[in-house]
What does this fold into?
Amino acid sequence: MSAQDIADRAGLSVTLIRRILRVPEQGQAPRDIARMTADAVLGIPLPARRAPSAPGLTSASESSRLLADLARAGWPAAALAQRLRVHARTVAEVREKRRRLRLDLAMRIRCLHRELVGIDPVSQGIRPADAARVRTAAARHTIKG
It folds into this structure.
């Protein structure tokens, strides 16, 4: 948790939390903390850890190729991102320049590609103009690359 998260949950100022979190220098006595402040900070329940279904990082090259393939088919990044439960910018970064990504995201991209590769995006509610724009951009990107 960040100092801001702790401050928000405890109802205290972020400056006070940063002072509490600062480690005393060598030879300096530990700081006294008011009981109310200590109770407010110590009473914060820790957020649940999200255990990844597939831990670790992997190369983004295959995922990049799969996302580019879906772009050539006319699937906009926003539609793919919604199905992958990530931000559209993440889809664009993986497709264009990211070198590594989480293994669970790579697996979701692979499954999504298998699901959508033979489907016309327009039949799934994507506007024809959006699909055409994505196809044109993907073709232009393929020529440059």
